[in-house]
């Protein structure tokens, strides 16, 4: 554990993974101790804001609830593109239609 934010632990693995995803390789190579502290401060602020958003019920909003589905579709398309090249028109139509169906079903 590297920090405690409103009683919620922030684990070192979370910090390391978040930093890794956030920065390109050439920046990661220059990552110094002072930057780690600044990054941890920013991550703590983000966690505090997320906790406040949950406290006021924003985690129940339809657009927030749809976000994981959108992220999954984006990741699926990236994986398919990396594995097979450009997705087919049929695949694109199927995945582009999904968010509309999710919204239509939730409204």
Structure in words:
The structure is a single chain. The protein is mainly alpha-helical. It is 74% helix and 6% strand. The chain has helices at residues 12-22, 25-28, 33-55, 62-84, 89-106; strands spanning 3-5, 8-10. Strands 1-2 form a two-stranded antiparallel sheet. A hairpin with a 2-residue loop joins strand 1 and strand 2. The chain is flat.
Give descriptors for this structure:
107 residues, mainly alpha, flat
Short description:
This protein has 5 helices and 2 strands.
Q: Unreliable runs, pLDDT <50, ≥5 residues?
A: none
How many H/I helical runs?
5
Shape: flat
Distance between the termini: 40 Å
The neighbouring-strand order within the major sheet is 1-2
Overall structural class, as computed from helix and strand content, comes to: mainly alpha
Mean pLDDT: 76
Give a count of the beta strands, DSSP E runs of length 2 or more. 2
- Percent in helix: over 70%
Largest sheet: 2 strands, antiparallel
Rg from Cα: 18 Å
What percent of residues are in strands?
5-15%
Oligomer: single chain
Order of helices and strands: EEHHHHH
């Amino acid at each position: 554990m590297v920090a405690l934010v409103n009683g919620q632990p922030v684990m070192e693995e979370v910090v390391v993974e978040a930093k890794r995803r956030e920065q390109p390789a050439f920046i990661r190579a220059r990552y110094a101790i002072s930057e780690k502290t600044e990054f941890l401060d920013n991550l703590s602020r983000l966690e505090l804001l997320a906790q406040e958003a949950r406290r006021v019920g924003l985690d129940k909003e339809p657009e927030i609830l749809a976000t994981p589905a959108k992220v999954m579709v984006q990741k699926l398309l990236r994986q398919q593109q990396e594995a097979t090249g450009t997705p087919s028109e049929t695949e694109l139509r199927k995945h582009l239609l999904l968010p509309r169906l999710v919204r239509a079903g939730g409204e």
